[in-house]
């Protein structure tokens, strides 16, 4: 072999080694990214700075560092001292490049002080009796993982209402049951008993054996168990309401459960209807090559891949893609999803509405960030949801198609 051939051979080996190392690095990055998507993140860091509090001003004010969250009009909540304190914030009164002055509507716990705090869209903090002034019961329902906690808000119309339609409200990924509190008053005003369940891997709930989210592919069983709890206590049927990943969970429950024929209608707020789109969007947001997000699909789907990301069972995102499965839907759906959603873009939601205009009613929304449609215009949100649910209650119950036989 000539010296030139030997040099070429060494160069080829070096390039092959480099390509192998690059492929391994890409694979490791895809595994890390996908694992983060399915890993619960219960510990939320403070994300906003309180600059000043004026409780004697008319109206009382709180001044915050300006961020994409704090500059948007509407009503929001603010925690501080590791949730030891909570306040409700109203409209923006003044704003410059660095700060935002907002109306301080109420201080529910603690005393707000300058320093770090955490923004929330829940607005209401704590169980319904404390946060909404509505009597509730702390209940549990049985699941395959053990007892699951829930809040139950009975109807003020008495036992006759409990033999009718109930509302079951499902929060999103990494959220708490408090995310659902904004929807309780309008549904309660319609006379519906309201059940707000936890689901597996919530902070106050039993964990999946893997300790990982399955993006709706297993969590729907907990919603099914919650519906069974309601049926056992007199409910005739239910309206399911879901936010973000809660929307994905609700759609699975409404089509895969053996009691899906007891689901009368569905309300979705900023829902995930196509996880492919969300993963690709998040890879772009995190400035990763789009291939990183796409490499996550086989990791989730195949037995060897799911072990790398820590899932209990393989997860096929196609089963969670309601744009391609739109023809299978048999339930009326109200879909509220802002054009300005920065976390779950509303393109798939709009595509689903175009595919099934006979069933899916879209309420256009602007300005609101992820799951904050209510916050930007609570009166409108209540009005839209109330009108839709009232219309469904006036019609015979729809029947959903179930694919429960497929798992």
From TrEMBL:
SUPFAM superfamilies tied to this protein: alpha/beta-Hydrolases
Domain AB hydrolase-1 span(s) in chain numbering: 168-394
The keyword Cell membrane is annotated on this UniProt entry: no
Signal peptide: 1-30
GO molecular function: hydrolase activity
Keyword Kinase tagged: no
Listed name of the protein: Alpha/beta hydrolase
UniProtKB keywords: Hydrolase, Signal
């Amino acid at each position: 072999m000539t010296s030139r051939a030997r040099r070429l051979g060494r160069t080829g080996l070096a390039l092959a080694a480099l390509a192998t190392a690059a492929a391994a690095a890409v694979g490791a990055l895809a595994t890390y990214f996908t694992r983060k998507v399915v890993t619960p993140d219960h510990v939320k860091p403070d994300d906003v700075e309180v600059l000043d509090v004026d409780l004697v001003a008319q109206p009382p004010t709180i001044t915050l560092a300006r961020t994409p969250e704090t500059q948007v009009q509407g009503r929001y909540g603010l925690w501080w001292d590791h949730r030891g304190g909570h306040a409700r914030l109203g409209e923006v009164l003044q704003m410059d490049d660095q700060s935002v002055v907002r109306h301080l509507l109420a201080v529910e716990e603690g005393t707000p002080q300058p320093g770090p705090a955490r923004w929330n869209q829940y607005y209401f903090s704590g169980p319904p009796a404390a946060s909404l002034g509505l009597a509730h019961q702390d209940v549990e329902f049985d699941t395959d993982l053990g007892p699951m906690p829930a809040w139950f808000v009975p109807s003020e119309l008495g036992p006759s209402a409990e033999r009718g339609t109930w509302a079951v409200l499902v929060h999103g990924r990494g959220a708490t049951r408090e995310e659902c509190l904004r929807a309780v008053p309008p549904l309660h005003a319609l006379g519906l008993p309201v059940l707000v369940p936890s689901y597996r891997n919530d902070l106050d709930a039993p964990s999946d054996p893997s300790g990982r989210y399955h993006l709706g592919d297993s969590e729907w069983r907990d919603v099914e168990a919650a519906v069974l709890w309601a049926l056992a206590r007199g409910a005739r049927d239910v309206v399911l309401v879901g936010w973000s990943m809660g929307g994905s969970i609700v759609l699975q429950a409404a089509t895969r459960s053996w009691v899906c024929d007891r689901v009368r209608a569905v309300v979705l707020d900023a829902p995930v209807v196509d996880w492919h789109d969300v993963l690709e969007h998040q890879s772009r947001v995190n400035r990763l090559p789009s291939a990183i997000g796409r490499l996550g699909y086989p990791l989730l789907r195949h037995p060897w891949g799911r072990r790398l990301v820590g899932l209990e069972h393989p997860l096929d995102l196609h089963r969670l893609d309601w744009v391609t499965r739109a023809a299978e839907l048999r339930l009326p759906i109200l879909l509220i999803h802002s054009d300005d959603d920065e976390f779950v873009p509303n393109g798939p939601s709009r595509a689903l509405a175009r595919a099934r205009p006979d069933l899916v009613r879209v309420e256009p929304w602007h300005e609101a960030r992820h799951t904050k449609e209510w916050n930007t215009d609570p009166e409108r949100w209540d009005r839209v949801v109330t009108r839709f649910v009232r219309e469904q209650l006036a019609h015979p119950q729809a029947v959903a198609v179930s694919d429960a036989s497929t798992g």
